Amino acid sequence: MSVNQSSQQATVLAVDDSTVMQGLVKQALSNTYNVLVADNAVDALSVIYHNKVSVLLLDVSMPGIDGLELCRTIRSIPQFQALPIIMLTARDGAFDKVQGRLAGATEYLTKPFDAEKLCEVIGSVLNVKT
């Protein structure tokens, strides 16, 4: 591993109140990306302000501020309007997907997720050839 590897990797922030899901996302992505986790909206906002986050993975169902509200909040902040946001949630209804898009999500994936598909979608939103 070269010294520059971590600085070359894109940073993915996974926001999910489930530590199990955080672990699964880390396991799926840590070979390719620098993975940060947060378990609520307030921590997530702090992380994106203090780190160069390339992609945000958001769960919809979280206590307090849910993923849709967090997505809308992030979209209202000028410096984060172009940040790719992927909803990663158990809510898989057509209405849920429409709500995700209306809130500003770039992509909408459902749990349980396929690790290869997740990497593929992140790569596509980052315009990285996989």
UniProtKB/TrEMBL annotation:
Modified residues (4-aspartylphosphate): D59
Protein name from the UniProt record: Two-component response regulator
PROSITE patterns, per the entry: RESPONSE_REGULATORY
Classification via InterPro entries: Bact_response_regulator (IPR050595), CheY-like_superfamily (IPR011006), Sig_transdc_resp-reg_receiver (IPR001789)
Pfam families, A to Z: Response_reg
Keyword annotations from UniProtKB, A to Z: Phosphoprotein
Response regulatory domain boundaries: 11-126
Top-rank lineage group of the source organism: Bacteria
